[in-house]
Every structure is written in structure tokens, then in C-alpha cells.
Design a protein that fits this description.
76 residues, alpha+beta, 3 helices, 3 strands
Amino acid sequence: MKDLIEYIAKSLVEHPEEVSVKQSGGNRVRVELSVAKDDMGRVIGKGGKVANSIRTLLRVAAEREGKQATLDVTEP
């Protein structure tokens, strides 16, 4: 799941070298995504649509593994 979020984020941003993804938890996985300050708008999107789409993809990937997952986009 970490690799999926990292791939999506790096595809969206202008500074892919500053993308950082941390994953923690067992059955309930928590994924933290951190990007450059300039790229926050690209990852969140207008009205949070991009971030919600990424969350949906994450939930589907987690469900396939029998887990639950949440995504937090954190400030750098």
C-alpha cells in the first residue's frame, strides 16, 4: 500500500524527490503522505477531490489484503 501511494504522489507533484510515505499499523493501517509545500495543492486538489480519490484507491488495496487503511496528508 505504501508503494501505491508513493507512486501516485510522485506522479502528481513537481518535486517527486520530496515525497515521503510512512506506513504503520497491523490490521488498521495508517499511511502518512508528506510532500513539498508547493505541491500540497496538487495532492489535495480542489475541494479535496484528489486526496479523496487517493483514499478510495488505498481503501480498495487494503480491502484486498483484508485490512482497513486511512490516509493522512501532512504538512512538511
